Amino acid sequence: MDALTLLAVFAHPDDEAYGVGGTLAKYAAEGCDVHLATATRGEAGQIAPGVDASPATLPDVREHELRCACRSYGIHPPHLLGYMDGQLTIVHQGQAVGRLVRLLCRVRPQVVVTFGPDGIYGHYDHIAVHRWTTIAVELAADPSCFADSPAAEGQECRPHEVAKLYHHVLPEEQLAAMRDADGRAAVLMDGVPFAFVGYPPKEITTRIDVSATVQAKVRGLRCHATQVGNGTEASWAEAARDPFFRTEWFRLVRSTVGWPDGVETDLFAGLR
């Protein structure tokens, strides 16, 4: 059997850090082959106070931060898809899917993780990546797809079937803990609060305990200083103790190896 391989696909640098950084580090520590694909370099992101970056340098700074985070998790350097932050809904959708199909056929993961259809909080880039990844997983197994690619005779166009596709999700109980004084758990985009989407326990198939790799998760998150700020040692230590920070949740939405009986605790269940 091929080595156990996981590919996570997200839109921006730091998307991986909040939700699946501990999971990426966990499987890397176990000796799995762990990859991260990121659609943009985060050009449209904010710059936290006190961080040495400017709008002109932000793309390069955020790519550097992403590479720092990948080293913190112990995974491969990121696969950058090369799109502009904030524009994923208006790029050529077929070309974007094609890039992911070729990446899937080259990396050959058994497990793929990405956003759900809600994009966590409705971010349009997130939703675009969800759609690209969902379609690419289906098309990568079809030998007739992209047969006219210049690489059609190479590894990148040898069909590959992903065994398990997961959506990263947030549980309702976490949102309850996140709600502010106005009763909102939301992200401000262009001055408007976009609410996080939470899932009830019955809809969450997989719960990953990342307590053993929580410090790698913290290091990865701290790499994204333009987005999270520098913080204090005390604030990072407090974050690492938070039970919600030490657990990551997923929904299994596609499987060739059966479905869990109860809540899974391993993304590679059924594949080992």
Draw up the topology in text.
Blueprint: E1 5-10, H1 15-29, E2 33-40, H2 58-73, E3 79-83, H3 93-107, E4 111-115, H4 119-122, H5 124-140, E5 164-171, H6 172-178, E6 186-189, E7 192-195, E8 198-199, E9 206-209, H7 214-223, H8 225-228, H9 233-241, E10 247-255
Helix pairs in contact: 1-7, 2-7, 3-5
State the gist of this model.
The protein is of the alpha/beta class and 272 residues long. It is 36% helix and 20% strand.
Structure write-up:
The protein is 36% helix and 20% strand. It has helices spanning 15-29, 58-73, 93-107, 119-122, 124-140, 172-178, 214-223, 225-228, 233-241; strands at residues 5-10, 33-40, 79-83, 111-115, 164-171, 186-189, 192-195, 198-199, 206-209, 247-255. Helix 1 (15-29) links the parallel strand 1 and strand 2. It has 272 residues and is an alpha/beta fold. Helix 1 (15-29) packs across helix 7. It has nine helices and ten strands. Strands 1, 2, 3, 4, 5, 8, 9 and 10 form an eight-stranded mixed beta sheet that branches. Strands 6-7 form a two-stranded antiparallel ribbon. The mean pLDDT is 92.
* Largest β sheet strand count, sense and barrel closure: 8 strands, mixed
Rg on CA atoms, Å:
18 Å
**What is the count of β-strands?**
10
H/E element order: EHEHEHEHHEHEEEEHHHE
Strand content: 15-25%
